[in-house]
Amino acid sequence: MSQGWMIEADLYNTDFGDTTCEGQRSRGYSSEPNDDDQWTPFRLLDADGEVYFTGRSADIGKDAEFAFSPLDYFGSKFGCVTLEYWSEGKWVEL
């Protein structure tokens, strides 16, 4: 079973030329998903609705503690306050 999350695009640090967070993974991240349907695209936004990071997670809809972990990890450091995930053709706030 796949688990964890990974940042696939770092839009925050691209703007400022800092070290990128692309490729940052959660502990226990499984890089070889058994089924692509297990992975849910997500994005992290600041209070103004600007997207800072996009990624994929195998934890959305399974356990709130793990589903929110990308926001917990990046929120305080970069000012992200919202995690949205892709569901049925639109972004939905978790």
Structural write-up:
By secondary structure, the chain is an alpha+beta fold. The chain has one domain (5-88). The protein is 21% helix and 31% strand. The chain has three helices and five strands. The chain has helices at residues 11-16, 64-67, 69-78, and strands at residues 5-10, 40-45, 51-57, 82-87, 90-93. Strands 1-3-2-4-5 form a five-stranded antiparallel β-sheet. Strand 2 (40-45) and strand 3 (51-57) form a beta hairpin. The longest helix is centred in the last third of the chain and has 10 residues, at 69-78. The protein is globular and about 30 Å long. The relative contact order is 0.23. The model has no long low-confidence stretch (mean pLDDT 82).
Q: Helix/strand/pairing class, anyone?
A: alpha+beta
Count of helical stretches: 3
Q: How much helical structure, as a percent, in the residues?
A: 10-25%
Beginning-to-end CA distance, first to last residue: 22 Å
Please tell me how large the radius of gyration is: 13 Å
Q: What order do the SSEs take from the amino end to the carboxyl end, as H and E?
A: EHEEHHEE
Based on CA inertia axes, which overall geometry fits? globular
Provide mean pLDDT, rounded. 82
Strand content: 25-35%
Enumerate the strands of the largest sheet in spatial order, edge to edge or round the barrel. 1-3-2-4-5
Q: Please provide the count of β strands.
A: 5
Low-confidence stretches: none
Largest sheet: 5 strands, antiparallel
- The total number of structural domains is 1
